[in-house]
Write the structure tokens for this entry.
Amino acid sequence: MKLNQSVQRAIAILRAAASQPVGETASGLARQTELPWTTTVRLIRTLEHEGFLQRLPDSDRYLPGLDLLRLTSSGTESRMLTALASAPLERLVKQVEETVNLTLVVAGGQLDVVAQLDPPRLIRPANYIGRWFPEHASSIGKLLLASYDDQRVAAFLQTPLEQLPHVREAAALIEQLLAGRGQDRGRRRAESGSEPQE
């Protein structure tokens, strides 16, 4: 399969610029991508003109541009995942005859419900698409937290918990997570047919 080298080079420059939190100079982009200086400058100018790279004011450093950021934050990821997951989600709804949500973990530990499928018998379903929840504020989030090892849970608890009626403090959350871990281990033992060890 023949690929377009110019596009590959432009993508390499974008990746290099995005890899540096404070941006990267043109010479740094050329060095990282191992491209000739003239090629790098030509691609930088084109990407800047198209809004995919932006030069920082009073600086010679480049960051991903606003047009590129708009493309990446337009919900494309959730639409793609929803399309890929739709058949398995439909099968799961038929199997359990309950509402099924596709939820993404986003930066900052929030949960974003991007798809919801309801069984036909549900008269008036609640719609959670587009709602964000802290990890500790939903059953999906608590399942995710219960899957974390102790060190990762401890790191999560270093940030203040949003005060919610069903979880007001870290101790209550830890108790719920431990209960969830115990139920999960018991369920796995039952499914495998093994008895708990004393």
